[in-house]
Amino acid sequence: MKKIIALTLFTLLFSCTDDNTLEVYDKAQKPAEVNIKGYSKPDILQLRLNGSPVPINGKASYTDKIETQLQFVLDKDESSELGIYNSETGAQVAKYSITYDNINDYKSLSFFNLPGIFLKTYAVKPQVNLGKVGFEFIFPNLGEFSGSSLTNVKGVLKRENGAVLAEFDNIGKENFTAVKIYNFFSTSAPVYLELYKPGTMEPYTGSGLIQVKIKQDIGANMMVIQEKMENGIVVLKGDIDVADYL
Question: Taking the model in full, what pTM does it have?
């Protein structure tokens, strides 16, 4: 009788569901922790995890500094969607698919939202001494209209007379460059940023000189470079200064 009972238990434990494949009753799980640090002005945003609003300090929507920590559990074959929405229009600003396998990529998530532009980074205004000018650059839509496959470009900042003020080896899509500082020299004279392929003096796209007119303010300047299409022609703009919002 004992042998029959033992055989029955063995059969139940190792019964197959299909073609000798064991059925998995307990899925592997992994805890997820996402530290969010963002900024939005003037738009009011809402974070949603799998469609459910994320409250921050008791509020379902928020503006200016947006900081919180999300903690949840992911199954092996499960994904969770974190979306950022404009709470007034309902439009989706950005989304992130967080899975069991990529959770380490989302331990820290930063963003900076301004009218018409969304940066996947957090901006901190650099310290610039009195009488000095500091510049940082970011190029979030590099290649969107030019078709360039580059992930970063070289930038050379010059005065109108061609004198070099600063060089930036890697202006990329996701993070601001390190700040470069020089002596302030004019309240009205613009400066120009020339863009090249990294490590060369070749234009990053096309064959002609690429020069972006940049406004120069005393103190910190955190400029967003953008490709835009105007009358069927790709043009470069550098008229958004994130430092104005900080």
Answer: 0.76
Per residue, the 3-state secondary structure of 128-155, as one string, reads CCCCEEEEEEECCCCCCCCCCCCCEEEE
pLDDT digits (tens, 9 = 90+) for 158-182: 999 999 999 999 999 989 999 999 9
Paired strand residues for 117:
114
Residues 111 and 242: their CA atoms lie apart, in Å, by 12
Task: Express each pLDDT in 199-245 by its tens digit.
Answer: 999 999 998 999 999 999 999 999 999 999 999 999 999 999 999 88
3-50 residue pLDDT tens:
434 434 434 444 444 444 444 445 688 899 999 999 998 999 999 999
Asked if residue 89 lies in contact with residue 17, where contact means CB atoms within 8 angstroms, the answer is no
DSSP 26: S
CA distance 177 to 184: 20
In this structure, what token pair is assigned to residue 181? 């500082």
**SS3 of 20-76:** CEECCCCCCEEEEEEEEEEEEEEEEEEEEECCEECCECCECCEEEEEEEEEEEEEEC
Flag whether pLDDT at 104 surpasses 70: yes
Rounded CA separation 19/59 (Å): 52
Spatial separation of the C-alpha atoms in residues 246 and 124, rounded to whole Å: 8
Q: Structure tokens of 73?
A: 């559990």
Provide the 10 A C-beta neighbour count for residue 124.
12
What values do phi and psi take at 6, rounded to 5?
-60, -40
Put the strands of the sheet holding 132-138 in their side by side order: 180-183, 132-138, 219-230, 233-241
